[in-house]
């Protein structure tokens, strides 16, 4: 399951937003009606996990944490505390809690961003400018992908 795209949408007065059709088709093809929401660890956006991706994330996290170590159990609790389960309705809409929206500063104009096997929901204005300059992006990609190394 791979999501690709950058699609604008509007949230209604009841804090519902419709998953854009290209993303919804992928979710429906995979039988993923249940979604899990969590604030991103680093950015002011909501990460939307399809159920099978969420289960994989939890399995990996739980495998790395020892529930008999209080600090690690608290880390798991904190991760779970900020998570919400939602189900797409027949129209492809999801309801997002006001608390979640406040945590990330989302109002009515939003943007969905496909990021590998998850979706991100952003306040539209936060994605109108590039996340980094073109030069920085190019340099970091070269470093990461080894453009300076022989093939």
Protein model, in words:
By secondary structure, the protein is α+β, with helices and mostly antiparallel strands. The chain has a single domain, classed as Transcriptional regulator MraZ domain (Chemotaxis protein chec). Helices cover 36% and strands 29% of the residues. It contains five helices and eight strands. The chain has helices at residues 21-29, 51-64, 70-81, 98-104, 134-145, and strands at 3-10, 16-18, 34-39, 46-50, 83-87, 93-95, 109-116, 118-123. The strands form two sheets. A six-stranded antiparallel beta sheet has the order 1-7-8-4-3-5. A hairpin with a 1-residue loop joins β7 (109-116) and β8 (118-123). The radius of gyration is 17 Å and the shape is globular. The two termini are 30 Å apart.
Keywords for this entry:
151 residues; alpha+beta; Chemotaxis protein chec; six-stranded antiparallel sheet; two-stranded antiparallel ribbon; 5 helices; 8 strands; globular
Compile the SSE list and pairings:
Layout: E1 3-10, E2 16-18, H1 21-29, E3 34-39, E4 46-50, H2 51-64, H3 70-81, E5 83-87, E6 93-95, H4 98-104, E7 109-116, E8 118-123, H5 134-145
Antiparallel strand pairs: 1-7, 2-6, 3-4, 3-5, 4-8, 7-8
């Amino acid at each position: 399951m791979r999501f690709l795209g950058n699609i604008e949408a509007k949230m209604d007065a009841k804090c519902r937003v419709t998953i854009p059709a290209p993303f919804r088709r992928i979710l429906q093809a995979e039988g993923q009606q249940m979604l899990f929401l969590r604030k991103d660890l680093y950015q002011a956006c909501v990460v939307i996990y399809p159920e099978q991706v969420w289960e994989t994330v939890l399995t990996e996290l739980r495998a790395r944490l020892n529930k008999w170590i209080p600090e690690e159990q608290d880390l798991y609790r904190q991760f779970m505390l900020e998570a919400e389960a939602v189900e797409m309705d027949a129209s492809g809409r999801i309801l997002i809690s006001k608390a979640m929206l406040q945590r990330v500063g989302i109002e009515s104009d939003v943007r969905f961003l496909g990021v590998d096997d998850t979706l991100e929901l952003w306040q539209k204005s936060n994605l109108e400018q590039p996340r980094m300059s073109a030069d920085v992006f190019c340099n970091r990609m070269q470093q990461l992908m080894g453009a300076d190394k022989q093939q």
